[in-house]
C-alpha cells in the first residue's frame, strides 16, 4: 500500500508576509494530518524572498506544536550548510518535543553562490566533498554507533528517522551503502529518476535502521474541479520555476490562465520535462496519473508537492487528491491512515 506525504516550501506570495506564510504552512500540515498523510516535510532554502523555510528546525517546531500525529521533518536539511553536531542538537531537540514524529532528510547540494557562502562562513564546495563523512558522523551523534569525543545533548539517543535525499545517482549510492530510506526529488529534477531508483535497490545494504529498500518520490500535484482550473492553479508554481531558472527568483505570483502557452519554446520544454513527475487535473485525472507514476517507480511513498498562490486552494487540492486516491484504491493504492 502506497503512503502519501506532503512537501511544503513555505511559499511567500506576492503581497503577502512571512507571518502569513508560516500560518498557511500550519493549516496545510493540519489538513494533511486530518487526511491521513504520513508525513509533512519542509525544505531548507536560503536568501530567497519567496521561500520562508530557511530556519527549518524552527519552522518544524511551529508545525509540531499545531499537529499531534503526523510525522514532521526536513525535505531536506542541506548538510554542507551546517555542522553535524548542530543538526544533531536541533533534531534531538525536536525529537524530545515531539517523540516518534521526527524525520531528518539530508541533501548534499547547498545551492549557494559566493555571497551566501560568505554569509554562512562556509566553503560549501569543500563541505559538499565531506558530505558522506558528515552523514556518518551525524548518524553516530544520534545513535552512538561510533564512539565520538563529544556527545550531542539533546541528540544522542534521539529516535530520529534519517533519510537520504537526491536528484542524481550520488544520493542513491550513499543511501544504498548506508541502508537509509531514499527520497528522490522528481518534482524539480526528474531526469535521473529511473536510474537512481534502480541503483539504490540493486546496491542496498541492510542496516539497523532499515532491512529493505524504501523509496519515496516527490511529484507536483494540482487537483481542482476541472482540468482547466487545475492548470491555472499550477501556473503560479510554473512561473516561479521559470523565474528561478532564468535567474530572477521572487515571491510566488498570482495564477495566469493559459500561462504555459505564452512561453517561448525553451521555457515550455522545461515545464514539459517536469510534467513527467506531475499530476494536474480533476481528482480522477490526478489519481490516474499518480497510479501510473507509482507503477513506473514502484515507490513505497509519494510526496505531494505544489505551491499555490491561494493557500486555501492548496488545501482544497490536497483534499481532492486524497479523495480521488481513496476512490481508486482498488488498484493497490490507498491513503496511509
UniProtKB/TrEMBL annotation:
Residues 4-300 form the Luciferase-like domain. It holds the Pfam family Bac_luciferase. InterPro entries: Bact_Lucif_Oxidored, CmoO-like, Luciferase-like_dom. Transmembrane segments: none annotated. Signal peptide: none annotated. It comes from the Bacteria. NCBIfam families: oxido_grp_1. This is LLM class flavin-dependent oxidoreductase.
Amino acid at each position: 500500500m502506497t503512503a502519501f506525504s506532503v512537501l511544503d516550501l513555505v511559499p511567500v506570495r506576492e503581497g503577502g508576509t512571512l507571518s502569513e506564510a508560516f500560518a498557511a504552512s500550519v493549516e496545510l500540515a493540519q489538513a494533511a494530518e486530518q487526511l491521513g498523510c504520513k508525513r509533512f516535510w519542509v525544505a531548507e532554502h536560503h536568501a530567497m524572498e519567496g521561500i520562508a523555510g530557511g530556519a527549518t528546525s524552527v519552522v518544524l517546531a511551529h508545525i509540531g506544536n499545531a499537529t499531534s500525529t503526523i510525522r514532521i521533518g526536513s525535505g531536506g536539511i542541506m548538510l554542507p550548510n551546517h555542522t553535524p553536531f548542530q543538526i544533531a542538537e536541533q533534531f534531538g531537540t525536536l525529537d524530545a518535543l515531539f517523540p516518534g514524529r521526527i524525520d531528518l532528510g539530508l541533501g548534499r547540494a547547498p545551492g549557494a553562490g559566493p555571497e551566501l557562502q560568505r554569509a554562512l562562513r562556509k566553503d560549501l564546495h569543500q563541505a559538499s566533498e565531506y558530505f558522506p563523512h558528515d552523514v556518518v558522523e551525524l548518524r553516530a551523534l544520534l545513535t552512538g554507533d561510533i564512539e565520538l569525543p563529544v556527545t550531542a545533548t539533546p541528540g544522542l539517543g534521539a529516535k530520529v528517522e534519517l533519510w537520504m535525499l537526491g536528484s542524481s545517482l550520488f544520493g542513491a549510492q550513499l543511501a544504498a551503502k548506508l541502508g537509509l530510506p531514499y527520497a528522490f526529488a522528481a518534482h524539480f529534477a526528474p531526469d535521473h529518476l529511473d536510474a537512481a531508483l534502480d541503483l539504490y535497490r540493486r546496491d542496498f545494504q541492510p542496516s539497523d535502521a532499515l532491512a529493505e529498500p524504501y523509496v519515496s518520490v516527490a511529484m507536483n500535484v494540482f487537483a481542482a474541479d476541472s482540468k482547466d482550473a487545475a492548470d491555472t492553479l499550477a501556473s503560479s508554481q510554473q512561473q516561479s520555476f521559470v523565474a528561478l531558472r532564468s535567474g530572477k527568483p521572487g515571491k510566488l505570483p498570482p495564477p495566469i490562465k493559459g500561462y504555459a502557452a505564452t512561453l517561448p519554446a525553451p521555457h515550455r520544454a522545461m515545464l514539459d520535462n517536469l510534467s513527467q513527475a506531475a499530476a494536474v487535473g480533476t481528482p480522477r485525472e490526478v489519481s490516474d496519473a499518480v497510479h501510473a507514476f507509482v507503477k513506473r517507480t514502484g515507490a513505497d511513498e509519494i510526496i505531494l508537492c505544489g505551491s499555490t498562490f491561494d493557500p486555501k486552494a492548496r488545501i482544497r487540492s490536497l483534499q481532492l487528491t486524497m479523495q480521488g486516491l481513496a476512490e481508486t484504491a482498488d488498484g493497490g493504492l490507498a491513503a496511509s491512515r
